[in-house]
Amino acid sequence: INSDPITLNNPSKPGYTFVGLSGTDLTGNNNTEVVIPTGSIDHRSFLANYNPITYHITYDYDGGNLPDNVTNPSTYNIETPDIVLNIPVREGYTFSNYTIGNNIVSTISTGSMGDLVIKANYEIEHYNVTYYNESTQFATVSVDWNDTTNKINTIPTKPHNIFLYWSEDGITEFDFENTHITSNKNLYAVYEEVEAPTIEISPSLDAETNKTWVCNNSQDENCGVTVTVSSEHNDYELYYKVGNGEATLYTGPFKVYENVEITAWSKKSNINSESVEENIVNIDSTAPTINQPAT
70 near 44, Cβ under 8 Å? Predict the structure, then answer.
């Protein structure tokens, strides 16, 4: 009763703001300056009252966004039940995790305190550009989302064909420089066929049962068979060989004075066409009779 006045110290509590004291001889619960005066008697009790501190949450979605009608809370306090963070979506990327500083988080647990900056982290998606030579897979290249891809260095081959370019639809040349890859793509080799030439002989076989017989005297301009090799393509080189002879560049019609097989082919850009053959069978060493029935 004779004690000096006692001024009560206000308490603190992590995660909370002190509101005030309530208790003996106090009105309300927000008393922040409480003094027990000299002359006081009897026991006294006091209760400290608090409000949880509201903390703010800042999200860095790094170019991503939450799906429609999905949110993450912007505030919380120490008493908030566990918050399971919703995952953002970013085009061309796969979500990896959230981090606070260097710590990976997926939930804000009850009892957490402090303002938070939560960053979303991703891995870029990869897509395959697959090259096909006819129906055979030729090569596959992995490309980061929205990147362009370079043309592969290896050139495919196809017999008797010149490789032209790669195409997605088999018709239009693929634009490697300006096409950004945002999905898997298949590219197909497009070729130009080197077409075989035509062999004509004169005089030639007449129908199925008759031959136009010619003599084999190379000294007689009326003897022998004239062979012409031709193509509709002016940019082709034409080659031929007589029997088992050497390949010869065709420069114009030539004569043959024996029954033999003529082989010819076209060439462009060092690619040969299929060979064509023509058998000469109407040369006779005896004096021929024109259009004599075949025996």
Answer: no
Burial (CB < 10 A; 0-12, 13-18, 19+), residue 23, is: middle
Q: Left (φ > 0), alpha (ψ -120 to 50) or beta: where does 266 sit?
A: beta
Asked if omega into 288 is within 30° of 0 (cis), the reply is no
Both tokens of residue 172?
A: 């239009």
Our measurement of the distance from residue 254's CA atom to the centroid of its chain's CA atoms, rounded to an integer in Å, reads: 55
pLDDT of 293 over the 60 cut? no
- Burial label, 211 (beta-carbon count in 10 A; 0-12, 13-18, 19+): buried
Is residue 254 within 8 Å of residue 226, measured between CB atoms? yes
Peptide bond into 81 cis (omega under 30): no
For 245-292, write each residue's pLDDT tens digit.
Answer: 999 999 999 999 989 999 999 999 999 999 999 998 888 755 444 333
Q: From the CB of residue 124, how many other CB atoms can be counted at a distance below 10 Å?
A: 12
Is 241 strand, coil or helix?
strand
Residue found by looking up tokens 């890859």 in the block: 181
Question: How many Cβ atoms sit within 10 Å of the Cβ of residue 257?
Answer: 18
Write phi, then psi, for 85 (nearest 5 degrees). Answer: -75, 135
Q: Where on the phi/psi map is residue 134: left (φ > 0), alpha (ψ -120 to 50), or beta? A: left
Tokens representing residue 163 in the block: 């490789």
CB 55 within 8 A of CB 115: yes
**pLDDT tens-digit profile of 212-251?**
677 877 777 788 899 999 999 999 999 999 999 999 999 9
